[in-house]
Amino acid sequence: MAKMAMTVVLLVVCTMAVYVNGFDSPSGFPVPSYYVMGDAFHDAGNNNFIKTKVPMANYKPYGMTYFKKPNGRFSDGRIFSDLLAVIMKLPQAAPSLSNVTIDQKGTCINFASGGSAILPASSVAMGAPNAFTFDQQVTQYEGFAVDVIYEYGVDQALLILNDAIYQLNLGTIDLLAYFTKPNYAATVGPLNTFLDSLAAEYLRMVERLYSQGARKVVVFGIGPISKTPLGRFLSSKMIPDAGIKWCAAIDSAVRQLNGKLSNMVKRLNADSGLDQMHASLQLVYADVYGAVTDITRNPTKYGFTDVKNACCGGGKFGAEFLCGHSKSKTCRSVSKNLFWNGMQFTEAGNKKLFSLFFGGSSFVKPFSVQRLCKLLIPGVPY
After folding, report:
1. Domain 2-221+242-288: CATH class, spelled out
2. Which residues form the signal peptide (predicted)?
């Protein structure tokens, strides 16, 4: 505990006071590293090391296009963090539960776990009790940050941790649990109370990351669940009126939680002056809901021919049977499908979202991920 406490003090105080040698960046961006936390949208293989009572993507046809083999990503190819790594000229992040080296800890680590939620109880309700929780992901990062400081020294650690890009996406599993598991909804109380607890826990995790060096953070909002193949399938099983009401209710909850996350980003950014509590912290909000809604309404504009069905799956909307199930099939034109499975995107879908969020669009606030990458942190000379 003493070691951790000293680390927190060093990272908070030295951000303002230490001047260190700059570093060469092949990409031209002052980004020496990145760290990823989230659910299946970002999982790069951590569930391969958990193995039981979590969603798995370690079998064919997962990974069939870019990697030519399954590797734990819930897609046919690359995910958002992989695409960012290409631009930053950094390696693909190692799963945090693998046998990571100190060099990897100081470069690129992915803590995400399919089935993870903001609240651990949500994962339990959805049948993924062993998913690596948001709290566990942040706790492991805190330990890695300590390792980086003691391996490289405070000066170099500031370059690594302060200039890293932190990518966060969680909340989908929480809302799925609330709207598909009545017993769970009854235990967590009214929707407004539940959403407030999710937002409060999310903020608590961001605060912990900040205390351990995070300064450049991308917060991904939650997509429109009713427009995913799984959402369409679940609502199709209900009587028409009930299905329509369910879609409206769950997407309303998504928008409410997204609003709370967006407001959190605004509040923290407004408190990032050099003499304020969150000095030098800069966050970007990626509006996944708005982006995916626009894509589903205007598929040809984005180069898609199918935005309703899972490319890999079976039954109604390709979401009745899981990708890889004996009754599942794989679509012929993966690049023309937005969704790979019941919830996650194809590499083509991830590329479209990446272009909207990285290059800049109306779906990313207050500015693009590219601009976030270019920001210089006060106290760290370049």
Report:
1. alpha beta
2. 1-22
The pairing of strands 282-286 and 364-365 is antiparallel
Please report which helix (H) or strand (E) contains residue 219, including its range.
Answer: strand 216-220
Q: What span, in angstroms and rounded, lies between the C-alpha atoms of 39 and 48?
A: 14
Q: Can you name the residues that pair with 35 across neighbouring β-strands?
A: 109, 166
Q: What pLDDT shows up at residue 380?
A: 65
Where are the extended beta strands (E) located within 16-148? 34-38, 94-95, 108-110
**Which SS3 state, helix, strand or coil, does residue 313 take?**
strand
What is the chain's percent helix, strand, coil content, to nearest 5?
50, 10, 40
Cα–Cα dist 311/318, whole Å: 7
| Residue 314 C-alpha from the chain's centroid | 26
Task: Show me where the domains of the chain are located.
Answer: 2-221+242-288
Q: What is the DSSP letter of 37?
A: E
Q: What span, in angstroms and rounded, lies between the C-alpha atoms of 87 and 329? A: 33
Residue 311 has a CB neighbour count (10 Å cut-off) of: 29
State which residues of the chain have pLDDT below 50. 1-6, 8-23
Which residues, 6 or more positions from 88, have their beta carbon under 8 angstroms from its beta carbon?
27, 29, 31, 34, 165, 373
> In the structure encoding, which two tokens stand for residue 381, read together?
């000379």
Whole-angstrom CA distances from 135 to 204, 206, 314 are 9, 11, 34
Q: Are 221 and 287 in contact (CB under 8 A)?
A: yes
DSSP 328: -
* Residues paired with 217 in a beta bridge: 166, 283
Residue 286's φ and ψ, nearest 5 degrees, are -95, 115
Looking at the DSSP bridge assignments, the partners of residue 199 are none
CA 263 to CA 381: how far, in whole Å?
Answer: 31
Q: How far apart are CA 36 and CA 169, in angstroms?
A: 9
User: Per-residue pLDDT tens for 227-283?
Assistant: 999 999 999 999 989 999 999 999 999 999 999 999 999 999 999 888 788 889 999
